């Protein structure tokens, strides 16, 4: 027998908090639920009682952990409204592209049919406020004229509740990560065990025939990351690396110097939601916030190049724990490093030589 849904819980998508300011400045004036709700897109409301969250999370993870993250954009064309009872309207933001949100909601509906009892068809939207029909046209004009487009990555589904909150305010109680890969990543890298870095655990197919041009993070950066994987199934690549190019035969050092010595050193940084997972290969990696600088080192002009930092392999049951640790421990200062050289490694992971990047000079 299923439990009746609760209007004090919801399953939803929540934008990153650093993008709330514009949304909240509107909601604080126009939305009667401004204090109770954070900015959100409901996938399921009402939802299951909070006491069922843990069981539902396990069910959702079996499917959603394999789903990739996706981007949502709100531009001025996203501002819309629908009529309510009487002369009231609710105005809101609709994602510029609805496809991924609709697909996600449909998957959840199929997984949890007893928890989605709304008779209305699903319409992805983020509520901004309420107005009367006589005022809505003026509000639409003003909003669209002043709105600054925002984009963000959705990499998790949130379970929120106000059931036990003394102030009757919603807060996040559980999260399910979307960590499937958007595309196939390099599957040819060598993996080492944590305890025995000299012991080869696995060699991917074709890796014996390829040399690599790589960016290797400094030891202090890698050490900080390794602490996040303690007591998990994580099997790190030694060393962590961004593969820039692959060669059947290692290029001559003089040739690489001539191609690289004009490229200035730069900084690579990762956001709180940069951690990603290739579900088909169990590969864990970080996506830089901006790959423009790294792209200059894509010497083979590979169309598949995305600048990801490959970390190693992880069993899928540890995905949520590792993702939460990374997000909770993220700070800008500890998740960036300077790239001032690149390395050539042979097919067995041995360093062949290093090529420095150009030092930036200021007059």
Automatic annotation (TrEMBL):
SUPFAM superfamilies in the record: LigT-like
Record-linked InterPro entries: Cyclic_Pdiesterase
One Pfam match: 2_5_RNA_ligase2
The protein, known as: Uncharacterized protein
